[in-house]
Amino acid sequence: MHPWLLLLLPLHVLASKDRLLGVSPELATRYVSTKKGTVETWQCLDGSKTIDWSAVNDDFCDCADGSDEPGTGACPNSRFYCVNAGHVGSYIPSTRVRDGLCEPECCDGSDEPEGVCPNVCKEIGAEYRERLKADNKLRKTGSKIRSTYIAFAQKEKKRLEEEIAASAQEISTREKEVDRLKDLVERTESLSAAALEEMKSSPLYQSLKTHYTALKSLQREHKKHLEREKALGDILDQLRTGYNPNYQDMAVLEAVRGWEQLAGLPHINDVGKEEENADELGSDDVEDAATEDEEVLEEGMWTAMQLEYQLDDLLKTDYDGLLLEHDKHAGTPTSPTAILFNLSAYLPDTLVPQYESLRDQVVGWLALFGFTQSKSDSAADTSKAQKALNDAEHSLNLARKEKADKDQELARLFDSEWYGQEGEWKKLSGSCIEKEVGDYIYEVCLFDEARQKPLRGGQTFSLGKFAGWNTAESIEKGTPAYYSKQLYTLGAKCWNGPQRSVMLVMSCGLENALLSVAEPEKCEYEFKVTSPALCLAPSAEDIKREEL
Amino acid sequence: MRGFGSLLVLAAIPAALAVKSHDFKTCSQAGFCRRGRALSARAAENPSWRSPYSVDASSVALSPDQASFTAAIKSSIYPDVKFSLDVRIHDDGVVRVRMDEVDGLRKRYDEAASWALLEEPKVSQKVQWTVAKDSVKAVYGAKNDIEVKVAFEPLKVTLFRGGKEQVVLNNRGLLHMEHFRTKESVPKSKETVPVPEEGLDTEDGVQAVLGVHPRAAWFEGEQEDGWWEETFNSFTDPKPKGPESLSLDIDFPNHGHVYGIPQHATRLDLPTTTGENAHYTDPYRLFNADVFEYLADSTMSLYGSIPFMHAHSADSTVGIFNAIASDTWIDLGHPSPKSTTSHWISETGILDVFILPGPTPADIFTQYTRLTGTPALPAHWSLGYHQCRWNYVSSEDVRSVQKRFDEEDIPVDVFWLDIEYSEEHKYFIWDKRHFPDPVDMIKDVEAIGRKMVIIIDPHLKRTDNYPVYKQATELGILVKKGDGLTDYEGWCWSGSSAWVDYFHPGSWDWWKSLFKTEQHGDQWSWLESTVNTGIWNDMNEPAIFNGPEISMPRENIHYGGWEHRDLHNINGMLFANLTSQAVMARTDPPKRPFVLTRSFYAGSQRFGAMWTGDNLGTWEHMAVGVKMVLANNIAGFSFSGSDLGGFFGNPEPEMLVRWYAVAIFSPFMRAHAHIDTKRREPYLLDDPYKGIVRNMLRLRYSMLPVWYTAFREASVTGLPVLRPHFVAFPRDERGFSLDDQYFVGSSGLLVKPVTRKGVTEETVYLPAEDQVYYDYFNHNAYRSDAKGKEITVPAELHQIPVFVRGGSIVSTRERPRRSSPLMRRDPFTLRVALGKDSSARGELYLDDGETFSHQQGELVWREFVAEKPAKKSKGVRISSRNLATQKPTEAVDHVALATYDSGNAFAKAIADVRVEKIVVLGLPTKPSSVAVEGGKELQWTYTDGVAASDKKEGTASVLVIRDPKLAVASDWDILVKA
C-alpha cells in the first residue's frame, strides 16, 4: 500500500454535459465526439490533433488552439462563453476562468466553481436594459436636435449658394469698373509720369529713398527684436511660475534667478508676496526697465516712445510730393512742359515699350508702398485716377475673397472631413463651450481654437487650433467613431515641452458641453465633450434589445 | 550687463539635458578627501613612511570570558591625544575592529553600526587572544586556519588564512583619525597663499598657511586644508567641529577582484581609481545624493550607500563592512592583477570595521546578513509587475489604465501614484479636484487582486493647514539648523519645506500613527487609504533643491546633537524603516509591508525594496542598470530594480521591449516615466511589440514561484536572489568580471538580457563545469566543460537568452492571470532538467504571501528530486519531499521553527493545488512506462532528442507527463522506467 493513494486529488468531476461548459451556442455543434467502438474521440477545432473526448474540459490543455478547454482556463488565449440567462451571453478570456473573481461580464457565475459566484444576471440584465433604455432615449432625443442641425446645414447651403451667386454678379460688375479705370489711368499717366521720373533721378531723391529703405528695414529688425524679447520674457515667466518639475535642475534655478534680477521681479520663493504682482510684472516691466536705462539722450535724439509712435508717420512721408516741393524751393524750372514729363517722347521708338513696362513696374511698386499720394499739380490727375483704380481693385479683391470664402464654406458643409456628410456640425462651427477646472477655465470654440484662461489673471494660452477629426489609421472617415474625436494642435509651446494640443473625446449628449479636462501627458490635453451632433437615432435592433 | 545676463539665461537651457556634475563635489572639492589623497600621495613618495599610530602594549586588556580585548593607541605626532582600540571576534569568526578618540574635545559619531546592525553581534566565547611582545593574536576557524594578528608598532590588523594575508588594515600606514581641535589652539600666520588646485571656488582658494606642529607636517601636510570652513558653489559649510576625518587603508594582498560598495553606475568588478592606468580619476564616493540624469559610467555617488565590499580570488573570498555613515570616498588600486588596495576616506565617525573571513561568497553573505539582516521576505504580490508614471493624473485615469490592461489581458499587480496625487505636494492629502474618491479608486484596483502604492516623501510643506507639518512642529521633532534651535527650512517639491528628524525617538510612534486607516482618538491619520496600500519613499537622501549638493546642509543638527554630516547616509534608511513599521502597524496581526526606497544604507534590505533612481531611457542606462542591480544583490539588498523604460526620455519600441526582458528578470519590476515623457504603458504598443511584451510579462508571472522561492532562501541564508558568476562559480576565473548575465537564486536559471540595439544573437558564457545547459524555451542542449564555454544563441527581439542548468527542477505556474493573487489556486508545471549525471533537484516555497503566518509554520516548502532508481538504470525516479519537515529550523527567517505541521492551515488551503504537467529534459531513451509509484500508468508523450548524459548538443529529448493529478504539497514518487 502506497501513501500516494491517499494523495490522489479529488478531480473536478465533469460529467459529459460539462464538456460543453464555456462553449457558445454557435460552436456547440462542433463539440460532439466521434465514437469508434468504445473509444470516443474529438478533434481540436483547428484540426491539429485528435484527443480523447474525456480530455475535453478536463483542465489540461491539449490543443494548440486551446479549443479543448473552453470551460476551464487551462489553455491560455482561449475564450469562455457565459450563457448569462436573463442577460446577454458574452465571452470572457480564459485568464478569468476559475480565478476566484465574479465579473459582471459573466453574471451567471458559470466560470467559477459552484458556490463561488451567485447568479446575478437578473439584476445585471435589468440594469443593463434600463441603461439601454435610457441610452436609446437619449439618442432619440439627441437625434432630434441633430436633425435640426442638419436642417440648419441645408438652410446654410441655400444661403451660401444665393450669396455666392450674388457675389459672382458683384465681381463681374466690379471687374468692368476696374477695366474702365485702368484705361483711364493709363491715358492720364502717359502725360505726367515721365516728368516725375526725370526728377526722381535727382541724387537727393535717390539718397532719400535709400534712407527710407534703410530706416524701414531697421524698424522691421527692431520690431523683430522686441517680439523676441517679449517671447523670451513669456518663456521665462512661465519657467518662473511653473518651475516645479525641473527645479531640481540647478540650471533652471539659475535661469529663474537671473531672470528675476533682470526683470526686477521678486524671488518666486518669497511665497505670498508675489501673488498679486507676479503676473502683471514680467514683460511690461522689461520695457520699463529699458526706458529707464536709456533716459539720458543726446540732443535731438528720439526717445523710445517717439520711435514707437512717430517713426511710422515719418515713413509715410510723400516723397514724390516733397520732390516737387523741393523743386519749387530750389528754384528749378517749376512748370516743365508736358513733353518733358513724357520721357517716352525723347526716347528712340525701339526703347519705348521697355520704358513703359519699367515704368509700370515702378508705379506698381510705389503703389504697393503707398507712395502714390502725390500732391503735385502735374501728377494730380494720375494720382486721382490711380486712387480710384486702387479702390476699385481693392473692392474687387474683397468681393473675390468673400466669394472664395463662401465657396470654401459650401464645400466644407457636406465634407466628411469638416462638417460631416449631413452637415450636422455646421451649426456648431465657432460655438464655444467651457469648463472651470482648478485655476483655469478651459474653452474650446469648435472648428476654431481651444484655450486655457487663468482665473486669477495672467496669460491666456492657446491650446491649439482645429486640425481635424480622429486620425487613427483604423478609423474610417465619416463613421461615428471618426466623429468621436477632434484634434486641436499647434497651441502655445510649453517650456521644455511640446506645443500644446487637445484631443476632444466626444459622445452623444443633449447639450453641447465640456464635461471634463485632463492632461494625461504634459501639455497634451483631453477634453470630454458631449454634443447632440453625435446622437444617432437608435435602430430597431437597439430598441428590441431593451425588451430582451 | 543686461544683455550678458540674458545670454547666460539662454545658454543654461540646452544644458538642462545632462548630469549637473558641477552640483556635486569631486574629491578635490572636498577638504577631507583632498587631505586623504594627499596623505596617500605623501606615503607613496616616502620610502621611510611609517604609520604614527601604535598600540600601547602595556594597556592591552583581554576580556576574561570572550574573544575581545581593548588597548590604548598612541599617535607619535600627537602624543597628548588618546585613542582606544577594541577588537572582537564574533562567534561566526567575523572580526570587529573599533578605534575612537578618548577624552577628546568632542565625541566622534559612533552610532552608525547601531542603525545598520540587526542586533548586537555575539562575541565568541571559544576563541582566545594571546598577547605576544609585539602583537595580539588569535587562531580559530573550522580548520584552525584563520589567524588574526594585531601588531603594535605600528598598529596593523591582519587576517590570515592558511598563512596567507587576506585583509590588512593600515598596511600602508594611511590610518589617520584627525583628533578634535579648536581653531584657536593652532597658531596662525597672517600670510595667505593661493591653493594651486583647480576647480576650487575663490573662497577656498585662499588658505591660511600655518605653523602646523613640525612633526605632524610630514604626515598631515603643510597646510590646514579645508579644516575650518569650506565653500562649494554658493554654499559655505561652517564646520564648527573642525577637522575630524578618518582615513584608513584596507588591503587585500591576495585578491584580484573587489565588488560591492553600491551605489555606483559602474561595472560589477570594480575598476581602479588609483595607480597607473587607473580606470577612473575620482574615488568611489558614498554620499547619498539626488543626482539629476546621472552618468551611466561614473564613480559619482548616487542615492544610496552600502559600505560593504567583497574581495575575491579563485581560492578565497573575504569581506569588509565599514560601518560609517558620513561622506566617504574609496580609492581602489590593483598593484598587481592578483592584489587589491583600498583607501577609505570619511568625513567623520569612529573607525568601526567588520572583517568577514569567508572563505566563500556564500559564507560572506551569511556573515554579512548576520550583521545587518537578511532581506525581508516580500509580499508575494510585490514580485509582480508594477505600473508607475509621474503621474496618473486622476482617479478616472487610474481606472482607465486598469481597464486597458484588462482589455489587453496583460498581467499587472500594482498601480502607482507619484507626487501629483497630493494637494500642493502635502503628502497624504489628496488633491480632490482630480482624486475625488481615493478610497473607492483604491478599492476598484484591489477588486482585481491588485494593490496601489502611493508616494510619501520626507519633505513637509510648511503650512499650518497641513496636519503632518503642524504636528511635527508642535512635537519639536524637525531637523534643526546649525544653531540647534531653529527648524531648518529648505526647498523641495512642496516649496518651502521642513524635514522630520527620524533620529528623534519622539518621531517614531507619531509617524506610525499617521498611517492608520481607522480613526484613533484625535490623532490625524490617513483615513483615505487602505490597509493594502504600499508606500513609496522617494527623495529621502534627503533631496533638497536649494541645499548643498542638492541635500541638507552638513551642519544641521539631529537628535543627540549630531551633525547631519555624521549620519547623512543613514537618513534615508531610517525613513524607510519607520515607514515600513508604520505600514505594518496598520493592522493586527500585521501584513507584510511594501515600502520602496530610493535612498538606502547597510541594513535597508530589512525594510523593503529599492530602485536605481532616475535613470535615462538609453541603452547605456539599461545595461548599467543590470550591473547596479547585481551590485545591490551582492551587497545584501536583493529586492532591487531599475525604472523599466528609463525615467527620462521616450524609448523607441525596440528599447522598451528589451527593457521588459531586463525587468522580468529583475527582483523588483516597475515601469516608470517622467512627467515630460509620452505615455508608454504596454497596451499602447503596436503589434508585434505589444504581443511580445504581453508574453514576457506572462513569463514573469509563470516564474513567480521561482522568484518567491529564491526570496525565501535570501531571507533565511542571505544568499542573493540574483547571483553573478563569481557567486555561483567562485573558482571560475573567466566569470569573475561577468556582470551582464546571472543566475536566479538556486533555481538553475541562467539569464542574459539583451541590452544592445539591433541585436539578433547574443554570446552567453557557460561556467567552467562539465554540465549541460538547456535553452528554456526550445530545450536545445548546450554543453560547457571544465574551461568554461562561450555559446552564441539567437536573440531576436522576442527572444531572451534563458537557460536551465542541468540538474535543476524549475516550478512554474503557466496559466496567465490578470494579477498574481488570482494565481493562488492554479496548478504547477515542473521542468526537470536532468544533469550530466541524470539527476536534478529543485525547491518550491509557498505561503499565503501577505501575512506573517509563515513564521508560525503556515507554509509549504517542497523539494523535488530526480535521480536514477538504480545505479545503472536509464530510468528516473521523480520525488516530491517535504523540506519543511526535514529542516523546520531553516524554513523561515527570524524564527527557528522547532517542528513543522504539514497539516497547517495554509497547506490545507492549497491541498487540491496540483502538479498539472511534468516536463523531463534529457532522458537517454524513450520510457517503457511512466507511473506514480505503485499506481497505474500515467499519460505521457516522448520526443526523442539529446540525452543529458550524452556529449552531443542539439534539441534535448522531452518527456511530457500529462496531468499526473498529484498535489504539489504532498509526497509522491513517479517512476520513469527505461
From TrEMBL, chain A:
Residues 1-15 form the signal peptide. One of its GO terms (cellular component) is glucosidase II complex. GO terms for biological process: N-glycan processing. The keyword Transmembrane does not apply. Residues 430-537 form the MRH domain. Keywords: Coiled coil, Disulfide bond, Endoplasmic reticulum, Signal. Residues 150-198, 382-409 form a coiled coil. PROSITE patterns: MRH. This is Glucosidase 2 subunit beta. It comes from Ganoderma sinense ZZ0214-1.
UniProtKB/TrEMBL annotation, chain B:
Residues 1-18 form the signal peptide. GO terms for molecular function: alpha-glucosidase activity; carbohydrate binding. It comes from the Eukaryota. The keyword Glycoprotein applies. Coiled coil: none annotated. The keyword Endoplasmic reticulum applies. Transmembrane segments: none annotated. Residues 718-810 form the Glycosyl hydrolase family 31 C-terminal domain. Keywords: Endoplasmic reticulum, Glycoprotein, Glycosidase, Hydrolase, Signal. It is found in: Endoplasmic reticulum. Gene3D superfamilies: Glycosidases (3.20.20.80), glycosyl hydrolase (family 31) (2.60.40.1760), Golgi alpha-mannosidase II (2.60.40.1180). GO terms for biological process: carbohydrate metabolic process; N-glycan processing. Pathway: Glycan metabolism; N-glycan metabolism. Residues 85-331 form the Glycoside hydrolase family 31 N-terminal domain. Residues 375-710 form the Glycoside hydrolase family 31 TIM barrel domain. It holds the Pfam family Glyco_hydro_31_3rd. GO terms for cellular component: glucosidase II complex. Belongs to the glycosyl hydrolase 31 family. This is Glucosidase II subunit alpha. It comes from Ganoderma sinense ZZ0214-1.
